[in-house]
Amino acid sequence: MKPLMLEGLSKRFGSQQALEKLTLAVRPGEITGFVGGNGAGKTTAMRIGVGVLEPDEGRVLWGDAPVTRAETERFGYMPEERGLYPKMTVARQLTYLGELHGLSRAEARDAMVRWTERLRITQHRDKRVATLSLGNQQRVQLAAALVHDPDVLLLDEPFSGLDPLAVDDMSEVLRTKAEQGVPVLFSSHQLDLVEQLCDRVAIVRAGRLAACGTHQELRPADPRGQVYVEIDGAGGDWPADCAAAAAHRAHEQGVLVDLAAGRTENDLLAQAARHGTIRQMRRHEPSLAELFRDLVEPADDPPEDRGEPDTPASDPARTSDLDKVSA
Ligand SMILES: Nc1ncnc2c1ncn2[C@@H]1O[C@H](COP(=O)(O)OP(=O)(O)OP(=O)(O)O)[C@@H](O)[C@H]1O
Predict the structure, then answer these.
(1) Distance between CA atoms of residues 22 and 42, nearest Å
(2) Which residue out of 44, 154, 156, 292 has the highest number of ligand 1 atoms within 8 Å of its CB and is therefore the one to mutate?
(3) Is the CB of 313 under 6 A from ligand 1?
(4) Which residues form the ABC transporter domain (predicted)?
(5) 71 within 8 A of 52, measured Cβ to Cβ
(6) What is the pTM of this model?
(7) Which of 103, 106, 234, 317 could form a disulfide linkage to 98, CB 3.0–4.6 angstroms apart?
(8) What is the residue extent of each domain of the chain?
């Protein structure tokens, strides 16, 4: 399987610059999470990726060459607005979509049977889509994206509104497709889920790639990091009189401390111990949600601020992995 490359995509709707030179590689055999605030440009990028929208600038590469219309037929796309025919039965719908993507009637029927079993919607095969719960409609929508055994999977918020069992089913299917070598890209606002499921995360901000990499690569390079400390009954402000603490804030059941310059964890430990029994002390690894907030929160900037590249995008440590792919 080949990577799907979105290369230098720009797209404007009226006065709204939806994408600004966005470049992103979706690698075969990996799940890439596509995250960003509302209106950051994820849907626009995916629609261009599957060929339902033309970019103003940039191109979509499948492997080394620009993707052709025939090749996009081999892509699987789950649109955010969901594109099912409400009055058609599930079975008819999936079979029809399979045929549209080039399968014979018998192959399409087999694929419908297989995916309705896999996604646990066999009991709904003869029902009209509109009569299903939203979660089950979403399972059908995923089946619709998979029925022709696609070479690439692009899914726009596939997890929104799913119950935990459906989240597990959906996650398992995406993982299996990636293991088969398919490049998988999905957008989501559920950052815990993205962190768990994705091999790589692309963070988009105001139409640009703010950062892309594995969770490890996205973490700040600062080797000092922060220290999480939990002390029995000490309250949240005990670091205020610790010389080893430059700053602190409440976090989970304890506090997150920035070590002061020249101080070590041992200095902090000694000072913390004076405040009570230490339950936990560990180097803090920021979650994806924290990294995301750091990178994306200033996205409320007015549109005129969009002209300059975002600092993280120009940070080689944060885009180095992408560079390797595009090189
Ligand atoms: N067809 C359209 N016509 C006009 N503006 C559009 C159109 N599609 C997208 N936009 C605008 O482009 C920008 C990017 O939208 P897009 O839907 O790609 O963002 P998103 O990251 O998917 O957002 P969300 O997380 O809210 O779904 C937004 O400002 C949006 O209003």
Answers:
(1) 10
(2) 44
(3) no
(4) 4-231
(5) no
(6) 0.80
(7) 103
(8) 4-74+151-219+294-326, 226-284
